[in-house]
Amino acid sequence: MLKLGVKPDVVSFSTLIRGLCNRSKIFEAVSLFDEMIEKGYQPDLIVYTTVLDGVCKTGNTDGAIRYLRMMEERGFEPDVVAYSTVLDCLFKKGLLKEAHDLFFKMIKQGIKPNVVTYSILIDALCKQGMISKAKDIVGIMTKQGIKPNVVTYGIFIDTLCKMGEVSKAEVVVDAMRKQGIEPNVVMYSTLIDSLCKNGMVSEAEFIVGTIRKQGAKPNVITYNILMDSLCKNSMVSEAEDIFGRMRKQGIEPDVVTYNTLMQDACFWTSSKSGDLFDFAGWFSKNGKLEMALKVLQDMWNSGLQLDTIFYTILIDGLCKAGHIEVAKELFCQLSVSGLKPTVYTYCIMINGVCKEGLPDEAYRLFKSMGDNDCLPNSCCYNVMIWGFFRNDYTSKAAQLLTEMVGKGFSADLYTSNLFLDHILQSGESILI
After folding, report:
1. How far is CA 175 from each of CA 147, 149, 205, rounded to the nearest angstrom?
2. By CB neighbour count within 10 A (0-12 exposed, 13-18 middle, 19+ buried), where does 4 fall?
3. Is 143 helix (H, G, I), strand (E, B) or coil?
4. % of residues, the chain, pLDDT over 90
5. Is-contact 265 279, C-beta < 8 A?
6. DSSP class per residue in 363-419
7. Looking at the predicted structure, is the pLDDT value of residue 73 above 90?
8. pLDDT over 50 at 269, yes or no
9. What is the mean pLDDT of the segment spanning 168-190?
10. Shortest CA distance to 394 belongs to which of 369, 362, 368, 426?
11. Could you tell me how many helices (H) and strands (E) the chain has, helices first?
12. In whole angstroms, what is the distance from residue 402 CA to residue 61 CA?
């Protein structure tokens, strides 16, 4: 506009500042605001509040206080929205004293806190573990005729669930429903997550049923939480039922859903002793390999972007089940899909290939790790050394050990025992 010789007016500046703030370009918005002042234009209350909100979102507490004071100096009385915005910023930065001072300054100036202001205060108290004081604030609100809203109740539910006080959180849910406020799916999901973490899976399933009866719709996050808990409790068939139910309800699974089914149900389920579940044995007894591959095909067909975690889980299962060729294909598919294998993915593949009696191929894979900007770590070195020993490549194992130590890594107990056994059996001296 300036280049064309057109002078912007207050409306132009205000529109640009709002647009920049909406796009999170706060620095540019503040610069334009300062330019507006320099050119003698007087911003209105909306512009001040917009810039103030933007500055607070960046966590710049000093800047927020400065703009609040600037408003007062220029004859604009900050309203409850402006004060609440700055209070939220101060509390989030842990500046409790400054926040309390500003809160009482607001009251002294005759500006009454609203439900948003009180909810911000309650949230700060809950995060400090001061639940009883937060409850006192609710009492003060109610006396002033301000009713807690869904956000206020949500703060208490979230806090109590994080503390493991699930029964108390359920009481809060009942209280808000008596007030005619229906909990949203986020609150229910929080409650379900807490119930599951406390081993109350059947209660969590009941809550899911309750949500639907009340007309609300559980979302993919809700179902993911429930399926994860069911799988971790070895209730794989129940998790599969939930998976089928969500598809029937038109809720499309996401990558987390599939990872949960693959990782928890098939691969990483822990035994009572705490050891990792024997994938190969589980597959052979339960015939789940076809299901796992069907899940993979289902994900491809649905257009979901598979992540490295998913591929790694499936590759690990295939290697342990002795399906090394399929594992190799999936490993190659990683690069085709634009993904990079992690150190852990490489470890799994190297171990799997060595178990198939292909140490040379495994070593080529080991040496290629740098091509993917994924340098071998201690685990990878140890796995490769185990592979060499397993295939009677003792001299190569010794060479790799020397290289490993030279790079600052140490042989683990299993590797050390392999070398000790070799020394005792062959009489050769190898320095570990």
Report:
1. 12, 12, 21
2. exposed
3. helix
4. 19
5. no
6. HHHHHTGGGGT----HHHHHHHHHHHHHTT-HHHHHHHHHHHHHTT----HHHHHHH
7. no
8. no
9. 87
10. 426
11. 24, 0
12. 55
Identify the pLDDT of residue 277.
Answer: 35
Q: Which residue has the tokens 């406390």?
A: 198
- Give Cα separations from 331 to 46, 280, 387 (angstroms): 56, 19, 19
Superfamily of domain 1-112: Tetratricopeptide repeat domain (1.25.40.10)
Location of structure tokens 């852990």: 344
Model pTM score: 0.63
Instruction: List Cβ neighbours of 146 (8 Å cut-off, separation of 6 or more).
Output: 113, 114, 115, 118
Which pLDDT score is estimated for 189? 87
Is pLDDT larger for residue 270 or for residue 135?
135
Nearest to 323 by CA among 369, 292, 367, 297: 292
H or E stretch covering 110: none
Type of residue found at 54? G
Q: Average pLDDT in the 350-373 region?
A: 91
What is the distance between the alpha carbons of residues 125 and 413, in angstroms, rounded to a whole number?
49
Distances from the Cα of 262 to the Cα of 66, 231, 258, 350, angstroms: 53, 10, 6, 21
For residue 17, is pLDDT > 80? no
Tokens of 315: 């590759």
Beta bridge partners of 239: none
Tell me the average pLDDT of the chain: 81
Angle between helices 45-57 and 26-38 (to 10 degrees): 150
Which residue, among 22, 76, 73, 75, has the nearest Cα to 51 in the 3D structure?
22
> Buried b vs exposed e over 23-44: b needs ≥16 C-beta within 10 Å?
eeebebbbebbeebeeeebebe
